[in-house]
Write a structure and sequence with these properties.
The structure is a single chain. This protein is an alpha+beta fold. It has helices spanning 62-97, 103-135, 184-192, 342-345; strands spanning 2-6, 9-33, 36-42, 49-50, 55-59, 138-140, 145-147, 157-159, 165-183, 204-208, 212-223, 233-241, 252-269, 274-276, 279-285, 291-295, 297-302, 306-311, 318-320, 334-337. The strands form 3 sheets. Strands 1, 14, 15, 16, 19 and 20 form a 6-stranded mixed β-sheet that branches. The protein has a 6-stranded antiparallel beta barrel with strand order 2-9-12-11-10-13. The chain has a 4-stranded antiparallel β-sheet with strand order 6-5-3-8, with no helix packed on it. The radius of gyration is 37 Å and the shape is elongated.
Amino acid sequence: MEVSVARPVTDSVVIHQTYPAYLKSSRSADIVARVSGNIVAKHYTDGEYARAGQPLLSIDPSTYRNRLQQAEAQLASAIASEEFAARQYEAMKKALESDAVSKMDVIQAESAWREAQAQIKNCRAAVDNARQMLGWCTVRAPFAGQVSAPEYTVGAYVGGEGNPVKVASIVNDSVVRANFSVTDSRFLQLTETPEGKRVRLDSVPVTFGDSIARTYYGRFDYSGLEVDQGTGTIRMRLEFDNRGRELRQGMFCTVHLPVAVEPRALLVLDAAVGTDQLGRYLYLVNDSDKVVYTPVEVGELVRDSLRIVTKGIAPGDRYVTRALLKVRDGMAVRPVEAPSGQSAKNSLPTR
């Protein structure tokens, strides 16, 4: 029987190790109410992508509007008192020149003027505080992002003045981060390897199993400041763009962390590797054109279609690439080989 065969391809590949990870958005925050009162209006749709500073909820402002008016009135009174105290002080200084008043009277007048100036500062601070609290009656988005459904409906009372109350959440997921942990020895291997042999961490594959077919590529941007003494691991983080906004905070994923470079790895077509109760195997064709069942040890999948073989074959061996169900150990065949293993080389796609 005629069978197609190929020879392993020797190529330099990056060896990866997989780590479970979870996603967090680059920016997320609780939106809180910092004043007390009834919610009188809602200005957004649940799940809407709001712009920075966009009004989200309105709290009854009447109490804080009255406080502002009172503070402004007290400021006006303090300004009038300061003007009177300043004129009185000037008059006392002139009277002292003609001995109409004592020096102590002048000192008292100056003291009253200084107190009036200080009172103006207190009143202005009270006005600024009252104006700020009146502004807080409109709850706004702190930054651009997707806003959750509110914790309270219109008409509900929130007591945020004493202790801020969470009323919603906002998430900006245009950039997401994959958080995972590695052993301290692996971390040292990644960071202390000489520059010429160090693996690149600016395009680390991140996959999501069957839920999302697309592979994302993250850039390493942070490592923890200390090793967890309970687990002996250190936290690491990848950052990447959320194209199409299909990813959500809290999703689980797999990080394929590059850990080493194998300069002369043997690669075969993954479809040619069989599996039985004893493990993985290849059908080789020997010099007598007979099929030889050969157990092998394999590594990771490379470039979607090639499998690294770490033990069991040599670079010049011929392996069966098709009709795997029809051949048997010891069967005589007529091998048809692609020139120089071209069938395998054609399976070296580039990203």
